[in-house]
Amino acid sequence: MDLLIITGMSGAGKHTAFKILEDIGYNCVDNLPIPLFRSFASLASNSPNNDKVAVGIDVRSRTPISKLENILDELEGDGKKVQILFLDADDDTLVKRFKEERRTPPLADGGRTIDAIHRERDEMAFLKKRADYIVDTSHLLVRDLRAELTKIFEEGTNYKNLNITILSFGFKYGIPTDADLVFDVRFLPNPYYVDSLRHKTGNDQEIVDYVMNSDVSHKFIDKLTDLITFLIPEYIKEGKNELVICIGCTGGRHRSVTVARELYHALAKHDGDYGLRIEHRDIDKG
Q1: What is the rounded CA–CA span in Å between residue 237 and residue 86?
Q2: Residue 189: which residues within 8 A CB-CB, separation 6 or more?
Q3: How many angstroms separate the first and last alpha carbons of the chain?
Q4: Residue in 54, 47, 6 with CA at minimum distance from that of residue 26
Q5: Which long-range contacts (CB under 8 A, 24 or more apart) does 233-242 make?
Q6: What are the CB-based long-range contacts (under 8 Å, 24+) for 47-52?
Q7: Which residues, 6+ apart, have CB-to-CB distance to 43 below 8 Å?
Q8: Is 196 helix (H, G, I), strand (E, B) or coil?
Q9: Per 3-state DSSP, what percentage of the chain is helix, strand, and coil (rounded to 5)?
Q10: Residue 172 — left, alpha, or beta (φ > 0 → left; ψ -120 to 50 → alpha)?
Q11: What is the DSSP code (8-state) at residue 63?
């Protein structure tokens, strides 16, 4: 039997996650009182018709969420494996969602929403640390969350707790608001000043050849790759689950796209504990 705890920050999408898991065959029970969880796990494991069970446990319970830690330790000691899905989102996103839905966090007690979020984050820290899967929904649409959970729980895809996005952009259009690391590549050879290359992009081989036809370009890619591969394990140990690496040039069409692609290919060669994708924000702008 697969027993899954769905938990995480209030406002991070647990209700939506339950609907998705029901659609892919899980029997779901939400807001189970913590003192009942041990008995529930025993009953579920002895029921032949409950091969997939998801249980929602979070700070809504009147019992302090910290009591769950001892129960999980006891179940693991008895050889019962309980997986944990932790849904998270950044503070700004959570505040925005509560305001849009005209709701207050469970721990608000009449105070400010942001203070309640900080308190909840502290109380939930041990569960996030124990989680098998951490999904940050800050920038996910419902269809994106469905795709993520389907990959994990239906298709059996090996899940990576750190997802890296390499994003090219143009400084003239502003630095991406969700950037974690920003690198300026405006010092590299610029194809914009070559009439035959100006209309092309960093996805065209002619641009790649022009930008990379320099010792400085190759040295920069090597040093950047070394830096990022050094940082990734440290971010994973710190508990970070999303890393946005932004590569910027003036317009976001030539040099930044080329360097983003080179970095993507370099990181893809490493068998690291992370997911990897690439985006070009401004490649189609004039």
Answers
A1: 16
A2: 210, 211, 213, 214, 217, 255
A3: 55
A4: 54
A5: 235/162, 236/161, 236/162, 236/273, 236/274, 239/128, 239/129, 239/134, 240/162, 241/88, 241/134, 241/135, 241/136, 241/161, 241/162, 241/163, 242/136, 242/138, 242/162, 242/163, 242/165, 242/180
A6: 47/1, 50/1, 51/1, 51/2, 52/1, 52/2, 52/4, 52/25, 52/26, 52/27
A7: none
A8: coil
A9: 45, 20, 40
A10: alpha
A11: S
Helix pair 67-77, 113-130: axis angle to 10 deg: 10
**How is the chain split into domains, by residue range?**
2-153, 163-280
Which superfamily, per CATH, for 2-153?
P-loop containing nucleotide triphosphate hydrolases (3.40.50.300)
List the binding residues for ATP: 8-15
pLDDT in tens, 230-285: 999 888 877 777 899 999 999 999 999 999 999 999 999 886 678 888 999 999 98
Q: What angle do CA 9, 234, 163 make, to 5 degrees?
A: 55
pTM: predicted TM-score of the whole model, two decimal places: 0.65
Quote the CA–CA distance of 164 and 274 in Å, as a whole number: 7
From the list 246, 268, 255, 267, the residue with the least C-alpha distance to 203 is 255
Annotated binding site: 8-15, 58-61
Indicate the pLDDT class of residue 49, thresholds 50, 70 and 90: low
Q: Is 255 helix (H, G, I), strand (E, B) or coil?
A: helix
Tokens of 210: 């022009």
Binding site for GTP: what residues are annotated?
58-61
Q: Say if CB 239 and CB 129 are below 8 A apart.
A: yes
